[in-house]
Amino acid sequence: MKTKELVYAALFAALIAVLGMIPPLPLGFIPVPVTAQTLGVMLAGCFLGRRMGILSLVVFIILIALGLPVLTGGRGGLAVLIGPSAGYIFSWLVAAGFIGWCSEKIWRRVRIWKLIAVNLIFGVLLVNLIGAPVMALITDTPVWTGLIGALAFLPGDMIKAVIAAVITMQLKEISPIEEKAGM
């Protein structure tokens, strides 16, 4: 792995942590708040590609496990990784991988609508389809209740999917995916 790739992964882990500084929006009816951090997950996949996107989330999850307050609300530590948010946090790793893989596949003919679609499928639907059932199991509530509660995340997540696609298209020329595609 090149130093440049490690730097990109570290930068995106830091970006996701910075997005965690934006105050969460607690919903009251589910124990997982609305955060801006999924925007960073979608950006990591879209901009960095599969391998570096996954690496950036591995670094981020390690920072959480070490107890650093990198999650929204200044949370961190092993307790968070087994609490109601655990499914969402670990789904970010999977989402960044799938978003990155798809971005690499479409890169030569990338269009903003394609990136939005990829973000909606993997950054919104997949994250909620993994996170909500895990949250329901941890909180001992029915899975359907968790999935219905997760519907509250959809409007904000759809906006984040569009923002991630727009930013990626604006920075397309400096993306590591562009470097690979140009070779």
From TrEMBL:
InterPro entries found in the cross-reference section: BioY
Cellular component aspect of the GO annotation: plasma membrane
UniProt-annotated location(s): Cell membrane
Membrane topology: Multi-pass membrane protein
A GO molecular-function annotation: biotin transmembrane transporter activity
Swiss-Prot/TrEMBL keywords: Cell membrane, Membrane, Transmembrane, Transmembrane helix, Transport
Similarity section: Belongs to the BioY family.
Official protein name in the record: Biotin transporter
Species this protein is from: Paenibacillus borealis
